[in-house]
Amino acid sequence: MDWISPLSLTAVLLAGVGVAWWRRRRRLHTLLATVEVITVPDFYSHHLENARPLHVYLPPHYHHTDQTYKLLLVNDGQDREALHLRQTVATLYARRQMEPLVVVAIPTNEERLAEYGTAVAANARGLGSKAALYALFVTEELLPFVRENFRVSERVADTAILGASLGGLSAFDIAWNFPDEFGMVGVMSGSFWWQAADDETSIEPGERIAHSLVRQGPKREGQRFWFEAATQDEFEDRDQDGVIDAIQDTLELIDELEKLGYRRGQDVVYVEMPGGRHNYDTWARALPKFLGWAFPAQS
């Protein structure tokens, strides 16, 4: 009777695993190659007096057409790989689940806690002191550069900004304050707990800043909002109502938007991730949901 020794069988199995791994890597490499990434090194901001790279993701066939594309800016661009940004975009293109667009990932730096926040005021802990300058960097320096050097639409409805956690609060704040630049904003696990100091004079003292901004209106006609929160974003429940603060803060912000006349399910979308956490594994799973909403494939 023919037989194979355990050692030989192990070698065969390992060889099979190796071939399967190699094929998966080859397929991934081929997929990623459909989305070219151009890095603009040391993009300097006069407003912030610092520099950072920009990572620009171009859609398939960008160089073989004169088409103008919609634009998405992404905060915390240094974590673009953890977000699976390139792979997700390429996959959605391959499945024809998203229209082609230009994506710009904007890395942050050691001043993240100063640059991200709300422009109207720093929070009660003094964080976000450069948020107004960061917003000017995005709107007065970065956007004009991208529009001059890449074929992107300048239409408000075609321009979006996305962020997670504190980067999500920043994205919301920038879009809210510059409705003539951004028609869409996506926020994943936004830091909407951001609270004004008790002696703040430019915003409601002691209140959550984003909620106060919306309460003071007016409605930004045509602007659309997409929010994600996860059931395990945190475990704090300040009013003991059984809803964690991260979800409550998001839902109450949506309530404020509805009071201004935004329609839930149309102008405002909320996605809850059961079992999700405050991390990039969860946000990477949420990313296709946002992209499919903001940039659906054209029939």
Short précis:
This protein has 299 residues and is an alpha/beta fold. The chain has helices spanning 6-32, 85-94, 112-115, 131-149, 166-177, 209-215, 245-259, 280-294; strands spanning 36-45, 50-58, 70-74, 101-105, 159-164, 184-188, 224-232, 268-277. Helices cover 36% and strands 20% of the residues.
Account of the protein in words:
By secondary structure, this protein is of the alpha/beta class. It has one domain (35-294): 3-Layer(aba) Sandwich (Rossmann fold), CATH 3.40.50. It is built from 8 helices and 8 strands; from the N terminus they run H-E-E-E-H-E-H-H-E-H-E-H-E-H-E-H. It has helices spanning 6-32, 85-94, 112-115, 131-149, 166-177, 209-215, 245-259, 280-294, and strands spanning 36-45, 50-58, 70-74, 101-105, 159-164, 184-188, 224-232, 268-277. Strands 1-2-4-3-5-6-7-8 form an 8-stranded mixed β-sheet, sandwiched between helices. Helix 2 (85-94) runs parallel beside helix 8 (280-294) and helix 6 (209-215) packs parallel to helix 7. The chain is globular, with a radius of gyration of 22 Å. 37% of the residues are buried.
